[in-house]
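About this split. The held-out portion is used to measure sequence recovery: a designer receives only the structure tokens and must propose an amino acid at every position. Recovery is the fraction of positions where the proposal matches the reference. Here is one held-out target exactly as it appears in the evaluation file.
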């Protein structure tokens, strides 16, 4: 039977939808085949370029810096923190099971990417379309390893494709156990901790080899959101997330329900945060020095420092216990080689990171007289030489003493011990104010120094660490001491920097340093620094600026030199603040602990008592139990500038002076003064202690008295240029 034309037409032309389907399937198959070929090529080429397993283990995730104290303990970790690398067999099985259960339950069955996980992620993406939420649940452990080691956390389609290719290549090159080992040692767990060992030590205080089920659950739960679930940030959130991990472990058969119930995550104890905020003053000062010490910026670094944690705690306690209310304080302690053993830049680092020990510029007051007397001793003066305490005017500037009196001829030792301003001015004029400035420069003062006459009383601003350095150089018999905080730096166990102490720079002759120590120890034994006594030889000097804006004490004993400063950041006056009060007491509190385990060291010269007829200035009487005559009802010293009640001056007999002190050349015996209170002098000490009451004769003069105000300065030493007249504020006394 012949076919009709209609049937032939239908046979020649298929339906349109069928043709579209055919071409779509065909094109898709070809595209899929091309993509598969491209994927295979990409995977194989990526596999060939992958580093070896040992190289992957050693590759860092950024530079880590661990700062060690002098005893080797880690005080600060900067950048990523890594614990000990644990092999697969050393990782507790419960930790492996917890991580697989919560992060990739089909880890042992997929090829690097999880098709089921991809479908689930696509479903989530469809449900959350338009909300801006990212696709979650698609990454396998292998993909996370690829991202952690080779890629960034930037989220885009291109990165996900590269991540998938890397995951497939990793699965081909390494075993499942190796990939899981990489993951557990590389992944970030929060708190700066990378790897389960670092996390275990960070949160629980022990290595990861001893993790319990509850601890493993908490660590496994951190990967999803380290900052949110961190135990140190929110312990309740961490415990809640650990409960979810335990349920997932039960669902996957990793543990039984009974085992999950015995985990008892509510009773887990976390390692408390170390209370070392004052240590940051030291690290903020020391670590920037790495830029000039080394050029390594990739390998993890271990920085070994000079900081003594026991001294640091003692320094912190001494400052906080003695700083006046509303004021701030700072302390620096140097060992004999310049090693910084303690540094406190303020009462609390959290509330103020400003380091007053290294950054603040403050007037040093009478502690600056160290350089005046060093210059005088180098010029030939001796501690027992006689100078005249009398009114003096230099280029229109007339300093006066804190007690507003003049004692006549006295020894240089007495003038220094009782911080006599007029003698410092005369010595500065005799040797030259430029010479004093040069001496300060020689001993490490790095700030600007003026050469006006008032500079002898500490009108130039200085850093506490520079002043401490100067006193340390005196303690080392005139050898320059340079502060340092870093002893060595290691990278991957190899030493790349080692500090070397330079003892070749001699600043002054040893006898000059010994004579200066003679003066300094007398100031502590009987002068303005008596509150700094610690039961062993101490040499030091107080410093108080005008209106009690700054209080200083700097001194040394048994190889440790310590400088203390107190005051307000805005330079407002602090009532009752003298160098011989709170700063000296803070020095003593610290030094008693700092040198407790060190042998007692005697100085080259023994303590020599100052002239018997001298009265200490007002600051040395603050808080003494037997000196009620010289303090007001609030315990503040009474003197011409000390804020006597009503703004007046104390009575004339408040600071009695015998006639033989005012007129020593007449060799007269003191006249009875029944109306005056008993003086607390050497006679009084001798009478109370049962020793002879006969006063020692005045020290013999081995040098002519210093030139009077109207005399010509000594040739070759005086500053011949007339200095500009200072304002009243500049000419106020410093103690």
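Reference sequence for scoring:
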């Amino acid at each position: 039977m012949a076919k009709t034309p209609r049937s032939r037409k239908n046979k020649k032309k298929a339906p349109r939808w069928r043709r579209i389907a055919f071409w779509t399937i065909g094109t898709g198959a070809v595209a899929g085949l091309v993509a598969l070929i491209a994927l295979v090529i990409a995977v194989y080429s990526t596999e060939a370029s992958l580093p070896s397993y040992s190289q992957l283990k050693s590759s860092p995730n950024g530079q880590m810096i661990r700062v060690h104290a002098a005893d080797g303990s880690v005080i600060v970790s900067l950048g990523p923190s890594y614990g000990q690398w644990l092999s697969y067999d050393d990782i507790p099985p419960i930790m492996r099971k917890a991580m697989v259960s919560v992060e990739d339950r089909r880890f042992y069955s997929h090829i690097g990417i999880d098709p089921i996980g991809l479908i689930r992620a696509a479903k989530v993406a469809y449900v959350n379309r338009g909300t801006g939420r990212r696709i979650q649940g698609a990454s396998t452990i292998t993909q996370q390893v690829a991202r952690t080691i080779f890629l960034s956390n930037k989220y885009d389609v291109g990165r996900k494709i590269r991540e998938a290719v890397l995951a497939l290549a990793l699965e081909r090159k390494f075993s499942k156990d190796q990939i899981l080992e990489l993951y557990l040692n590389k992944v970030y767990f929060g708190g700066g901790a990378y790897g389960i060992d670092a996390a275990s030590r960070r949160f629980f205080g022990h290595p990861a080899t001893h993790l319990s089920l509850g601890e493993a659950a908490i660590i496994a739960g951190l990967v999803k959101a380290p900052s949110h679930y961190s135990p140190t940030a929110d312990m309740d959130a961490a415990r809640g997330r650990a409960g979810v991990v335990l349920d997932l472990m039960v669902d996957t058969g990793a543990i039984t329900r009974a085992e999950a119930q015995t985990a008892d995550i509510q009773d887990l104890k976390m390692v408390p945060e170390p209370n070392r905020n004052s240590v940051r003053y030291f690290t903020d000062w020391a670590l920037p020095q790495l830029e000039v010490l080394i050029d390594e910026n990739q390998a993890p670094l271990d920085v070994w420092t000079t900081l003594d944690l026991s001294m640091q705690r003692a320094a912190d306690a001494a400052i906080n216990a003695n700083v006046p209310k509303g004021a701030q304080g700072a302390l620096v302690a140097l060992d004999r080689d310049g090693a910084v053993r303690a540094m406190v830049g303020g009462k609390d680092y959290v509330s103020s990171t400003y380091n007053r020990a290294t950054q603040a510029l403050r007037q040093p007051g009478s502690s600056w007289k160290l350089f005046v007397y060093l210059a005088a001793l180098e010029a030939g003066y001796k501690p027992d030489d006689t100078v005249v305490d009398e009114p003096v005017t230099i280029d229109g500037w007339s300093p006066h003493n804190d007690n507003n009196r003049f004692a006549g001829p006295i020894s240089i030792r007495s003038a220094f011990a009782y911080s006599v301003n007029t003698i410092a001015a005369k010595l500065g004029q005799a040797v030259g104010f430029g010479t004093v400035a040069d001496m300060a420069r020689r001993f490490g003062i790095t700030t600007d120094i003026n050469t006006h006459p008032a500079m002898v009383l500490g009108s130039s601003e200085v850093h506490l660490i520079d002043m401490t350095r100067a006193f340390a150089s005196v303690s080392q018999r005139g050898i320059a001491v340079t502060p340092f905080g870093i002893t060595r730096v290691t990278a991957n166990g190899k030493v790349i920097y080692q500090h070397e102490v330079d003892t070749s720079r001699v600043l002054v002759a040893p006898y000059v340093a010994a004579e200066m120590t003679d003066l300094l120890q007398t100031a502590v034994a009987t002068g303005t620094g008596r509150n700094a006594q610690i039961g062993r030889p101490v040499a030091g000097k107080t410093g108080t600026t005008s209106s009690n804006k700054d209080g200083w004490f700097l001194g040394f004993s048994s190889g440790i030199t310590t400088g203390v400063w107190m005051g307000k950041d805005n330079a407002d006056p602090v009532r009752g603040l003298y160098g011989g009060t709170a700063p000296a007491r803070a020095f003593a509190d610290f030094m008693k602990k700092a040198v407790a385990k060190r042998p007692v060291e005697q100085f080259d010269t023994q303590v020599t008592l100052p002239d018997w007829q001298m009265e200490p200035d007002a600051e040395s009487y603050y808080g003494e139990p037997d000196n009620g005559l010289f303090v007001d009802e609030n315990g503040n010293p009474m003197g011409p500038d000390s804020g006597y009640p009503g703004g007046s001056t104390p009575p004339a007999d408040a600071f009695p002076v015998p006639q033989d002190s005012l007129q020593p050349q007449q060799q007269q015996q003191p006249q009875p003064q029944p109306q005056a209170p008993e003086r607390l002098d050497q006679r009084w000490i001798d009478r109370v202690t049962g020793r002879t009451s006969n006063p020692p004769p005045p020290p013999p003069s081995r040098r002519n008295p210093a030139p009077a105000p109207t005399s010509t300065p000594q040739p070759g030493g005086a500053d011949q240029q007339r200095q500009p007249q200072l304002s009243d504020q500049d000419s106020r006394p410093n103690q």
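Annotator remark: Confidence is low (pLDDT under 50) at residues 612-678, 691-735.
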